[in-house]
Design goal:
Layout (H helix, E strand, L loop, with lengths): L22 H11 L2 H9 L6 H11 L8 E4 L5 H10 L8 E5 L9 E5 L7 H8 L5 E6 L9 H22 E12 L5 H10 E7 L10 E9 L4
Parallel strand pairs: 1-2, 1-4, 2-3, 4-5
Antiparallel strand pairs: 5-7, 6-7
Subcellular location: Cytoplasm
Pfam families: FtsJ
Catalytic activity: uridine(2552) in 23S rRNA + S-adenosyl-L-methionine = 2'-O-methyluridine(2552) in 23S rRNA + S-adenosyl-L-homocysteine + H(+)
Length: 229
Amino acid sequence: MKKAGSGHRGLHERVKTARKRKPSSQRWLERQLNDPYVARAKQEGERSRAAYKLIEIDDRYHLLKRGQRVVDLGAAPGGWSDVAARRVGSTDADPRVVAIDYLDMAPLPGVVVLKKDFLDPDAPEQLKRSLGGRQADLVLSDMAAPTTGHKATDHLRIVALCEAAAAFAREVLAPGGAFLAKVFRGGTEGTLLADLKRDFATVRHVKPPASRPDSPELYLLATGFRGAA
């Protein structure tokens, strides 16, 4: 298998400007058409280019192991859940991956899909029931609030989502478990980092190659959960 992003890009594809298309929409379309990860996802049957972010992080840090239980927050369209199910050996007979999103998500083998907003008050309990009362080994969160275009506001929103995901992770993770969540650069997650460093043996920022260089997104990776207080 070729390395991520390797291979010939081919001629640069241009998107003709439609009469009613905004310049920002045209830039997004051009970027999609010329993104090697988008092309690779289509060729290899991945649900989204985002799948390669988890693949690259896992190839480096070995988070996903056979037999583990995984919770995927903000899962649609299912790229991360699909990768997790394959790597932990989840099946319909013995599902080990639970995914949640308020957006529609097509079924995946070995994945229990909950159509629900993770921020709903009863969402954590539904996730726990879907785990069968068992602890999880890994909590994933690729959640992101709709962007406003105001960097400080967008950063605060995604940090709030990450804090909610981290609080849930502390409730369900088994000792030694891991937490991986998307954040944006911004410098206001000091409290979040301090809390994670208290509860996990190692906390680091990760930016996989599949994360576009011009994107402000980073991933917080916390490993070696010390157990609920």
